[in-house]
Write a structure and sequence with these properties.
Layout (H helix, E strand, L loop, with lengths): L9 H4 L4 H33 L9 H14 L5 H15 L5 E6 L2 E6 L2 H8 L15 H4 L8 H11 L5 H4 L3 H17 L6 E2 H18 L12 H18 L6 H4 L3 H34 L3 H10 L8 H11 L5 H32 L1 H15 L9 H6 L1 H13 L6 E4 L4 E3 L2 E3 L4 E4 L1 H4 L19 H4 L20 H18 E5 L8 E3 L3 E3 L4 E6 L2 H23 L1 H8 L16 H4 L8 H15 L5 E6 L2 E6 L2 H8 L15 H4 L8 H11 L5 H4 L3 H17 L6 E2 H18 L12 H17 L7 H6 L1 H34 L1 H4 L15 H11 L5 H32 L1 H15 L9 H6 L1 H13 L5 E5 L4 E3 L2 E3 L4 E5 H4 L19 H4 L20 H18 E5 L8 E3 L3 E3 L4 E6 L2
Helix pairs in contact: 9-10, 9-22, 10-16, 11-13, 13-15, 13-16, 16-17, 16-19, 16-22, 17-19, 31-32, 31-44, 32-38, 33-35, 35-37, 35-38, 38-41, 38-44, 39-41
């Protein structure tokens, strides 16, 4: 048999007998094990000292592994967000000692966030070495000022400090001003957007500034985001953070063999090449200049007297030193320029971004900054900013300092100990990484009372007296503090001043909605969303128009003087002015941070209702618009039962662009004719045909809720709204839009957008005139979405009509066997089919009329039903007893069968569920207000209400009349048992309005609500997590919870 060939040459193998191979293997094994043992022995020696510092009592390696594993296992939350939250959580746990420790692998880490302990680290002249992770950026920064240590750092620091003298930094102010004005122009391009993220905009600006000040070149990243240098810088930052977060990438021999490492090296090579070319070109220019200027003395005189006035880059200052003293080499200059780029780019960008965000969040602070800036520049938005201007910006400096306290650009500072250190009685051994957690240091309640409050006055001189020097360290502290802090503050002042000179800022996200993460700088995971408005825009653009509008208003006021006298006699809140009425309350809705204007509006109206509880009606007015609120059954009946008071309030006209003059918004003879035509379409027998739709969509809803069972809680109204949108589309238009399966449906988005813009207009009286609204960003968004809605509806109608004509030709007899052409076919017919049938028999009902009615049905039957179901489920989830009674009733109908469709006979048996639904609509009526416009004077409670007044039926408070509903805030379905309803005033409970203009679709809504709730409670137990006193109500087109209805879902056994 042929001998197998060895992997080694035969001659080589023969040199070693068999036992020698065993010896080599044993030595190799020892060579691997011995270093591990030595490392572990060294670790245990360190650990013995470090473990005495407060921290977790569990095995340090296990804790480190568990933390890292949990960060990367969690896919729903950014690991850098989790990391910051974990560190902050540990700080709260060990708040008493204000020092604690943990391990990253074998590396001990101690956290400091108390001024006295922070001072022990930062004030040391010995422990000035940066932490180990800074070595990861050595390929780019080499041993520049940021990364070097020991004697080299000290000599380089001494060399560079004069370059940051204030007089030299003043030469950079024109660069700050020029680039920040480009940033302002870029912001202006986005002023009509729904929002803008300020971080990338400010980042490109600071990158242009740092390139021009550090290297003397115009990078133009604000104009050209595709620059190789810009891309490479961003790549290096991303890969650095990714490497720090993954301990298995820390060894160089592993990292540089990964795609991430190769990308990092390629990017650093690109930047190195760019910086070298710039240095050599600038050096060549300097040498040519020196040859031309033969007289060195004259040259020195020029530099001393006038040359400094020419703008010089940081690189130019280094080159001057290099040409005088060649100990500073080209490589040294490249290290320092790159370090300046690294240290001064992102930190300043996020610093100015957080400052802009803070101003947008606190209008009172923004107003004070604007006043200060206006006192310096007046109305001149173009004058260049000077050093003297910056000195006058006292309050802005306080704002920037407070921003750095609450949102420090560098959330932590890290040092590696080069010798043992005693702190608070604990000995930290050499090699320990010390992290100063600036983010928590700045939240020390002993130093900064009410630390989470944004208060620039903390930094007034009198408030800083006696404050510990290391209690506030946004730019580090001690011998290794930030050399460029003056540069950063000057840059931020110039940028912020130019923004404030041009815009009003509004931040869209409250602080508790931000997911803050700790990277090289402090960031918000989802950016910082703001909206801008031009300053003085209204005055300059609308002044002539306002004058033209004001004169007719005065004339109208004179003509309506009698109406004002009549309104004054009606009970109501005190008016600020005969013309303005109660308009003074509107601005107050926008002054309170953290409370939505819709919430304040609703609370104000409820407060007025309580204030005038004895009369149970009151008046108010805004400008020429008179409103009288009614919430007593007897007075409500006067309005709603009248066959003449059927015109909707003027506010409904804002819906005309969407709904036209459909059943909701029309009036007079058109409304009467349209109501008479459509009433048969809502006959109970026809509505039975929609049960299949309700069952099908609620089955999909149940499946979606099953998928959500694993969540701690869900916002129930989100699920319900998508389900009712599916139901209404199929029942109204006969099409499936799959809103529950595809939340990105353009139709779904357009419906939400139109509703949101309608309410934005309602809350802003200055947008009530159509001309103003059309020119606003809200109006543009409204009409854009409206076009999408109308195009979609028209397309559906035309296609549906074509199909029905084809079907009619094929089976004419079947399609025309019914009264009014509606048909008595057993096939389920959509609401749209019924309208088209009428159109085919009576062309007076045009396709545009059909579009109006379909859109109206969509509007009225979508959100109202969704919120009716959601509020009822919320109330059921608060009361376990009532929930069990409903489930008992449902189980008596369906038994254990959770799949059988609900039939009309089943619905008739749901007596207690019917009571619960009615009680839910009593406490939270989907439509909280009903509006009517008076066409003639009427007398109510002895008061004359003049023609043209809006009568405002306050359903929400009408349903809380203790004379009709004792203990009205209690959820009690038994109120609607037949024996308890007997004798109740017919206008005491009107969730679907009442009288001749009551809701035509109330039977449709009640059927749909019963099917959905029955199918949900057949499958799940519900628990509402927030008590009613924690829910903030918003008066929009329907009553909504501001923060959502949090509910816990558990499957029924």
């Amino acid at each position: 048999m042929e001998q197998e060939q060895s992997l080694f040459p035969v001659g080589f193998i023969n040199l070693f007998p068999g036992h020698t191979w065993r010896t080599l293997g044993l030595l190799t094994l020892l060579g691997i094990i011995l270093p591990i043992v030595l490392i572990y022995h060294k670790y245990t020696q360190k650990a013995g000292k470090v473990l005495k510092v407060p921290g977790s009592s569990a095995n340090s390696l296990i804790v480190a592994f568990t933390l890292v594993f949990s960060f990367f296992r969690n896919k729903s939350v950014d690991k850098n967000v989790l990391f910051l939250q974990t560190l902050c959580g540990g700080c709260y746990v060990f708040d008493k000692s204000r020092i604690w420790r943990f391990f990253m692998g074998l590396r001990p880490v101690a956290l400091f966030y108390k001024p006295e302990t922070v001072e022990a680290i930062l004030s040391s002249n010995v422990n000035v070495e940066k932490s180990f992770d800074y070595s990861f950026i050595h390929p780019w920064l080499k041993e520049g000022l940021v990364t070097s240590g020991g004697a080299k750092w000290k000599s380089r620091r001494k060399l560079l400090t004069p370059a940051f003298h204030f007089r030299i930094l003043e030469d950079f102010i024109p660069v700050f001003d020029e680039q920040s004005k480009i940033m302002v122009s870029k912001m202006r391009e986005k002023i009509d957007d729904e929002y803008m993220d300020i971080v990338p905009i400010s980042t490109l600006c600071t990158l242009d500034i740092i390139c021009e000040t550090a290297m003397g070149i115009h990078l133009g990243s604000q104009e050209n985001k595709e620059s190789d240098y810009v891309k490479s810088m961003h790549n290096v930052a991303e890969t650095f953070i990714a490497r720090v977060a993954k301990p298995w990438f820390w060894p160089d021999f592993i990292f540089y063999r990964t795609q991430l490492g190769k990308k990092f090296l390629k990017s650093t090579e690109t930047m190195d090449k760019f910086t070298r070319q710039v240095i050599r070109a600038r050096k060549s220019e300097k040498l040519k200049q020196k040859v031309i200027e033969n007289d060195e003395d004259n040259q020195q005189d020029e530099i001393a007297s006038g040359y400094r006035r020419k703008r010089q880059a940081f690189l130019d200052l280094l080159l001057e030193h290099h040409l005088k003293d060649n100990t500073l080499t080209e490589d040294d200059m490249q290290e320092e320029v790159d370090s300046f780029m690294f240290a001064g780019h992102d930190t300043t960008a996020v610093g100015i971004s957080w400052a802009i965000y803070a101003l947008g969040l606190y209008p009172d602070v923004q107003s004070r900054v604007q006043e200060e800036v206006d006192s310096i520049f007046g109305d001149d938005k173009d004058r260049p900013i000077t050093a003297d201007d910056l000195k006058q910006m006292k309050y802005m400096e306080l704002v920037l300092k407070e921003t750095q306290r609450v949102f420090p650009s560098a959330p932590f500072i890290a040092r590696d100990l080069v010798e043992d250190l005693n702190v608070n009685g604990y000995t930290l051994p050499k090699g320990t990484t010390c992290i100063i957690l600036t983010y928590m240091l700045h939240r020390n309640e002993e130093v900064f009372p009410n630390a989470e409050k944004f208060d620039p006055d903390r930094f007034l001189p009198e408030n800083c007296i006696g404050r510990h020097a290391f209690a506030y360290t946004p730019f580090s502290g001690g011998p290794r503090n930030c050399i460029g802090q003056k540069f950063a503050f000057m840059e931020e002042k110039v940028m912020l001043a130019n923004v404030i000179r041009n815009f009003h800022i509004k931040s869209l996200d409250q602080r508790d909605k931000l997911h803050i993460k700790m990277e090289m700088v402090l960031r918000s995971k989802n950016g910082l969303r703001i909206r801008l408005e031009e300053r003085n825009k209204i005055v300059t653009r609308w002044l002539p128009l306002c004058i033209a509008v004001l004169l007719p208003v005065i004339i109208v006021f004179i003509n309506r003087y009698k109406r004002y006298l009549q309104m004054w006699k009606i009970p109501g809140p005190q008016c600020c002015h005969p013309i303005l009425g109660n308009a003074n309350i509107v601005p107050s809705f926008y002054r309170f941070q953290g409370v939505a204007p819709h919430v304040l509006l609703f609370q104000t109206l409820c407060a007025f209702a309580h204030l005038f509880d004895k009369e149970r009606f009151f008046r108010f007015w805004i400008g020429m618009r008179f409103v009288v609120a009614f919430y007593k059954p007897e007075t409500v009946e006067v309005i709603l039962s009248s066959p003449t008071i059927i015109d909707k309030a003027d506010e409904y006209s804002m819906l005309h662009p969407w709904l036209g003059s459909g059943l909701l918004t029309s009036s007079g003879n058109k409304w009467k004719a349209r109501r008479k035509m459509l009433t048969p379409a809502f006959h109970f027998r026809i509505l039975e045909d929609f049960l299949h739709v309700f069952n099908e969509k609620s089955d999909i809803l149940v499946e979606k809720l099953k998928e959500a069972q694993t969540y701690k809680w869900v916002y129930m109204e989100h699920f319900i709204t998508l389900c009712t949108l599916d139901s209404i589309c199929e029942s109204a238009m006969g099409i499936k839009i799959h809103a529950q399966s595809s939340k990105d449906s353009p139709y779904v988005k357009a419906v939400y957008e139109v509703g949101e813009m309608f309410m934005a207009r309602m809350m802003r009286p200055w947008l009530w005139p159509t001309i103003f609204f059309s020119l606003s960003s809200y109006g543009r968004r409204f009409y854009k979405s409206l076009t999408d809605l109308h195009n979609f509806t028209r397309w559906v109608i035309s296609n549906r009509k074509a199909k029905m004509l084809n079907s009619q030709a094929a089976n004419e007899k079947e399609e025309n066997t019914g009264e009014n052409g509606v048909g008595k076919s057993k096939r389920r017919q959509a609401f749209l089919d019924l309208l088209i049938n009428h159109h085919l028999n009576d062309p007076s009902l045009s396709l545009e009329d059909i579009r109006e009615e379909v859109d109206t049905f969509m509007f009225e039957g979508h959100d109202t039903t969704a919120m009716g179901i959601s509020w009822t489920l919320y109330l059921i989830g608060l009361d376990r007893t009532i929930q069990q009674k409903i489930q008992y009733e449902i189980d008596s109908i369906f038994g254990d069968d959770k799949k059988r469709p609900v039939t009309i006979e089943d619905i008739k048996k749901m007596k207690y569920l019917d009571c619960a639904l009615k009680e839910g609509l009593r406490l939270f009526p989907s439509v909280p207000f009903i509006g009517r416009m008076l066409k003639e004077d009427i007398v109510v409670n002895g008061h004359t209400i003049p023609q043209g007044t809006t009568c405002f039926i306050f359903t929400f408070m009408l349903h809380r009349n203790p004379e009709v509903f004792p203990n009205p805030e209690v959820f009690d379905p038994d109120r609607f048992l037949p024996e308890n309803v007997a004798g109740r005033h017919p206008y005491a409970y009107i969730p679907f309005s009442a009288g001749p203009r009551n809701c035509i679709g109330q039977k449709f809504a009640m059927m749909e609500q019963k099917v959905l709730i029955a199918n949900i409670l057949r499958n799940f137990n519900l628990t509402s997590l927030d008590p009613r006193d924690k829910i903030h109500l918003i008066a929009e087109m329907v009553v909504r919870p501001k923060q959502g209805l949090r509910m816990q879902i558990t499957p029924r056994c």
